[in-house]
Design brief:
By secondary structure, the chain is an alpha+beta fold. The protein folds into two domains: about 15-105, Orthogonal Bundle (434 Repressor (Amino-terminal Domain)); about 120-290, 2-Layer Sandwich (Beta-Lactamase). The chain has 13 helices and five strands. Strands 2-1-5-4-3 form a five-stranded antiparallel β-sheet. A hairpin with a 5-residue loop joins strand 1 (about 135-140) and strand 2. Helix 2 (about 55-60) crosses helix 3, helix 10 (about 185-200) crosses helix 12 (about 220-230) and helix 11 packs across helix 12 (about 220-230). The N and C termini lie far apart (about 55 Å).
């Protein structure tokens, strides 16, 4: 038991998309745990479904089973105390805890921009142009690729040839063969990207454009369908990116992310290499061969 002493009144609330997603997330997490993994005795009995039962989760979190059932059904709001208890019971990490708090309305996010089209400001475009030895991308809502620089195109693909409505990072990972072979650890990176997309969706889980993207990729790729329904979440922060480039060989970058102050739904993502490293020398070689375009077109440089 985790010992919270909160009174939980199971009062139904008006159905909200975020509460539906919260319920689905809790259900997915308990399905991945075993009784022994949370300190419950293993009786050896055959279970009809994998993972913990709802009554076991409720007992460990010291809330009523009825209340927990309504949480999974998206019918009640939960307090921070209850959510923290569930985070402990379900062994949630920091990103997962943030995710459920946001879905439950306990963590403030910048308001969703209702505009159908996101625009990249000129200052950000100038910054991208100046990153001659750094690959730079601007990623918008639902991982849409809004802008990039010449080095990003030289390393990954000519994004300008991709129709604008298809310029989505997760979509390209699953549909572009050249990108599948570019990443040395494609499966890890693709699964991580799906987790980032799920985390980003907490702003608006039932965004129609997100629904179209998920439906398309679920039909095209069974791995995407499996990973999306697993409800894994992660913040798109730093980490290493490993590539096998057809011209300059194996490369290793550090990924950094910066939030745009003018539009928090835009992120500047940069791939950097340590000066003097093999990757840095490869970047210098690529930069020498890049011809600067006289005009910027569709976000490309």
């Amino acid at each position: 038991m985790f010992g919270i002493t909160a009174t939980c009144e199971a009062v139904d609330v008006q159905r909200e998309p975020r509460l539906d997603e919260l319920g689905a997330f809790l259900k997915a997490r308990r399905a991945q745990l075993s009784p022994g993994g949370v300190g419950l005795p293993d009786t050896g009995e055959q279970r009809r479904v994998p993972g913990l039962r709802r009554e076991e989760v409720a007992r460990l979190a010291t809330i009523s089973t009825d209340y927990y059932i309504r949480l999974e059904q998206g019918r009640v709001q939960a307090s921070v105390a209850v959510l923290d208890a569930l985070a402990q019971v379900l062994r949630l990490d920091g990103d997962q805890r943030e995710y459920i708090l946001t879905l439950a309305g306990k963590t403030a996010l910048p308001p969703v921009n209702k505009s159908a089209r996101q625009e990249v400001g000129p200052q950000l475009r100038y910054l991208l142009d100046d990153l001659t030895l750094t690959a730079g991308f601007v990623i918008g809502r639902n991982t849409d690729l809004l802008a990039w620089n010449a080095m990003a195109a030289a390393l990954v693909t000519d994004f300008g040839r991709v129709p604008e409505e298809q310029r989505n990072y997760v979509r390209l990972l699953f549909t572009e063969p050249v990108i599948r072979v570019l990443y040395r650890d494609w499966e890890h990176m693709a699964r991580l990207a799906v987790s980032h997309l799920r985390m980003d969706s907490r702003r608006n889980p039932h965004d129609p454009r997100l629904a179209v993207l998920v439906e398309e990729l679920s039909a095209l790729d069974p791995q995407f369908r499996l990973w999306w329904t697993s409800h894994d979440v992660a913040v798109g922060a730093g980490g290493t990116r490993l590539l096998r480039h057809p011209m300059v060989g194996d490369l290793a970058f550090q990924r950094s992310t910066f939030i745009c102050a003018e539009d928090p739904e835009q992120q500047l993502v940069v791939w950097t290499a340590e000066p003097g490293s093999q990757t840095y020398r490869a970047l210098c070689s690529l930069a020498a061969g890049i011809e600067r375009a006289p005009e910027r077109l569709d976000g490309a440089t």
